[in-house]
Specification:
20 strands, OB fold (Dihydrolipoamide Acetyltransferase, E2P), globular, 9 helices, alpha+beta, 2 domains, 5-stranded antiparallel β-sheet, 6-stranded mixed β-sheet, 38% strand, Rossmann fold
Length: 365
């Protein structure tokens, strides 16, 4: 890729929206492919940000650019209307046309895109979401997860330059969420287009996102690589019961007898419940802070499979009587949530070399 292409491969979004007393101010530079997640509590401005990028919400002092194509630049008087922006939009509800079968819904998404402007073929959209066997069925006969997969395929059929997803799993139960998550991962890994993903669920963010934008009360609190922001003790996301770290590793061994996989990463190796990924494949691993205990020396005669040498890089009070400990494992950040009594008894301090203990059954994907 040449230097010009590298500069163009990004999403720029700078704008202000005011609905007194609420105001949203963003100045973002996001990767031009992969998943960028907008995360924050209700009312923080996540959906409004998507609507501004789509051109559905009026913003002032705005500049919107997607991989080299400018959709809005108030300084130059540029505003591309929503119907001319190459966007795919997925909402919480599938909102399929009830009178059309699945095939008809997909073809509807393609109609406004001329043949020579199509980036994603109908066949590719169907294959990515595995909905070929559903094409003759009406929406009323589909499960919630199937309807949402069709809605995503319909958005892809418009051959978007960017895919906007507004809490697409919020209306689904736990089982349906688990059903659809692998398809979202497939989109991330196989499509060469950026995706903006709105959610308030930390597990979705850690499993899907490459880049994270934290919003609070209309302001961008932080923006950066998801693995780095999750473990920053100055951010709320690194505290509480859901606090976790994200590790990128490679499967190096499979133990079929005990149904375990071994993943290698910069800080060592981790045994975890067996993964479907074959040896040599990359995996993303989530480790919750509450599942990481600490010891001053490596323990023996223990059921814990994973004991890693780590260095303390910071401590911060968490809930009452609890401490969050930020750790470095060979350049990979981890978190451990322990009682303040334990932290005092062990005389924990930044720079100390200790050991992190992680139960294999506690590791998540």
């Amino acid at each position: 890729m040449n230097a010009t292409a590298q500069v163009a491969a990004q999403v720029r979004a700078r704008f202000s929206v005011t609905y007194a007393p609420f105001a949203l101010n963003c100045d973002l530079q996001l990767p031009g492919r992969g998943v960028s997640a907008l995360f924050g509590p209700s009312g923080s401005g996540k959906t409004t940000a998507l609507r501004v990028i789509a051109g559905l919400e009026h913003a002032s002092h705005a500049y919107i650019e997607v991989n080299g194509t400018v959709w809005q630049d108030d300084e130059r008087g540029i505003f591309v209307p929503p119907h001319r922006r190459a966007i795919g939009y997925v909402f919480q509800e599938a909102s399929l046309f009830a009178h059309l079968d699945v095939r008809g819904n997909l073809e509807y998404g393609m109609r406004r895109i001329p043949q020579d402007g199509r980036r994603v073929s109908l066949a590719q959209a169907v294959a990515l979401l595995d909905i070929g066997h559903l094409q003759q069925r009406k929406p009323a006969t589909l499960s919630g997860g199937e309807r949402q997969r069709v809605a995503i395929a319909r958005a892809l059929a418009t051959s978007p330059g960017i895919l906007l997803m507004d809490e697409p799993l919020a209306a689904l139960d736990i089982k349906r969420k688990a059903e659809i998550m692998p398809y979202l991962e497939r989109l991330r890994d196989e499509l060469d287009i950026p995706m903006l993903y709105v959610s308030h669920a930390p597990d979705e963010i850690t499993r899907l996102a490459d880049h994270l934008v934290l919003l609070e009360a209309g302001s961008v609190v932080a923006s950066g690589a998801v693995a780095q922001l999750l473990t920053r003790l100055d951010l709320d996301i690194a505290h509480g019961d859901a606090a976790s770290a994200l590790i990128s590793g490679v499967i190096v061994a499979q133990d079929d007898e005990f149904q375990l996989s071994c993943a290698q990463f910069n800080g060592g190796a981790l045994w975890l419940p067996q993964q479907s990924a074959t040896v040599g494949k990359s995996v993303r691993i989530r480790i919750q802070a509450r599942d990481v205990s600490l010891s001053l020396a490596p323990q023996r005669d223990t059921s814990i499979l994973n004991i890693l040498p780590v260095t303390i890089i910071g401590l911060s009070e968490d809930a009452a009587g609890q401490v969050m400990v930020a750790l470095d494992a060979g350049g990979t950040p981890l978190l451990s949530r322990i009682t303040r009594k334990s932290a005092v008894a062990m005389q924990l301090r930044p720079g100390a070399a200790i050991h992190a203990q992680i139960k294999g059954v506690a590791i998540l994907r």
